[in-house]
Target: SEC7 domain-containing protein
Amino acid sequence: VVEIGRNCGSNRVDIFIKNKLTKMGQGLWRVVRNQQLQHRRYSEEGYYLGEHDRRLAAASRRHAQVGIDIYHVLRVGRSKEEHGFPDLELLPPELSLTILSYLNATDLCLASCVWQDLANDDVLWQGLCKSTWGHCSIYYRDHPSNFNYRKLYMQLDEGSLTFNANPHEGIGYVFRKGILDNVPKEIAKFIFYTRTLNWKKLRIYLDDRRDVLDELVTLHNFSNQFLPNALREFFRHIHAPEERGEYLETLITKFSQRFCACNPAVTRDLGLSPDAVYVLCYSLILLSIDLNSPHVKNKMSKREFIRNTRRAAHNISEDFVGHLYDNIYLVGHVAA
Model:
């Protein structure tokens, strides 16, 4: 890696980047050296093993041969420069990608003077974009000749940071850059497939944009899921408010409707309706608080939960309500 830096001009390489790359190379050298020592130990012990154990040792030696090959590459690199490390191109692709996986976008940009080819690899930046922001309208358009995913990554990163400070400004930023269409369904998909958005800011945004919330709920598929598990998945994407109010009631109402739409046969067999699921969801939230809160000394028993729930939802079987209690008791809170 230092060899690449020299080819690009050592006077222009930042000291911080040199130190970072040197530490990475030293760590890699230690890993390979340990593999070589392990290989030697296997060879010495193989003489004393029985026939069955010799076969196992042979398999271990074949596995360790990868380390010997890497060690050979590193040794060749050191023969050219006493304190240097080989070019990433000399290493196996899997090992090179493993090294690069420890760098974020900022480090990649700082190291672009050393890894010019890598920093300008549009395929790499395309993978980074789509793995972090799974859906953007711009992915499905015809791109101009000067389009590149490196610039798009920087814009998406800026949009996410802006969203986490002010959600409306963040969404407006990606609109202005042409990254996302100003359509509720497109906004919902962008939110659903992005994991870098602050959930508190997202809750504020969805409370203001109920049209986007409606589209976001329809992206969930609760088919063949047990009710508490489906509710947990729902609240992982759309976080519940900290206090009971109109927004929480809206979330549970939309979830109940979507759950019944995804499970028509189950809801019919169990006698569930959106109103009944709504009641059960509230019961599960209250039960979760009761069982998991350290401030509640006298925990609700299974018998009490069944009695209270069936008092509100008469058509629900006692066994089904009992299974709901067991799930909360064993798995935990539905809206943690």
